[in-house]
Amino acid sequence: MTGKELVLVKIKDILPAHRGVAVFLEAEKKLFVIQVDVTAGYILGMQYIGQKSERPTTHDLIANFFVGFGIEMIRTVITDMQDDVYYARITLSQQNELGRKIVEVDARPSDSIILAQNLGKQVFILRSLLDRLEDVRKIYNDLKKKQS
């Protein structure tokens, strides 16, 4: 992922949608949306309001494995969107007796965001992808007005 410009992403809001949950993400001045399944939406929603699950979720378990094995999540990057499906990569690092190993793994953006939040890491999007995305701020504002 080196040599490609990354833009910081923040969660703006999480709302129910007809196909699961709509996660509204903001990067610079652009708002875009990712549709996630109900389970991922529920976990993201709980994290968004600062509420913990009574029992570890799968994402908590993975984060605990990372800590236990000395694996650092360096970053997660939303890398592409094709046919309304988003793609992401998680960059991991581990230092051991053989040296430092860095790997990138393919992941769903929802899982990447959940893990990043669990581990206190930032989420990014490739500038080239962000430039392609439609700004959905008007749609978001209309949805918020209907909820009021």
Question: If helices are DSSP runs of H or I spanning 4 or more residues, what is the number of helices?
Answer: 5
Number of domains: 1
Rg over CA atoms: 16 Å
The CATH architecture would be Roll
- Average predicted local confidence, pLDDT: 92
Overall body shape: globular
SSE order in H/E notation? EEEHHEEEHEHH
Can you say what the CATH homologous superfamily is?
A: Bifunctional nuclease domain
Largest sheet: 7 strands, mixed
The amount of helix comes to 25-40%
In spatial order, strands of the major sheet run 3-2-1-7-4-5-6
Low-confidence stretches: none
State the CATH class: Alpha Beta
Query: Strand percentage, roughly?
Result: 35-45%
How far is the first residue's CA from the last residue's CA?
42 Å
Quick structural overview:
The chain has helices at residues 38-48, 58-68, 109-119, 127-132, 137-147, and strands spanning 6-17, 20-27, 30-36, 71-82, 85-96, 99-107, 123-126. By secondary structure, the chain is α+β, with helices and mostly antiparallel strands.
Feature tags:
148 residues, alpha+beta, seven-stranded mixed sheet, 5 helices
Description:
The longest helix is centred in the N-terminal third of the chain and has 11 residues, at 38-48. The chain has a single domain, classed as Bifunctional nuclease domain (Roll), CATH 3.10.690. The protein is α+β, with helices and mostly antiparallel strands. The protein has a seven-stranded mixed β-sheet with strand order 3-2-1-7-4-5-6. α1 (38-48) packs parallel to α3 (109-119) and α2 crosses α3. Helix content is 34%, strand content 43%.
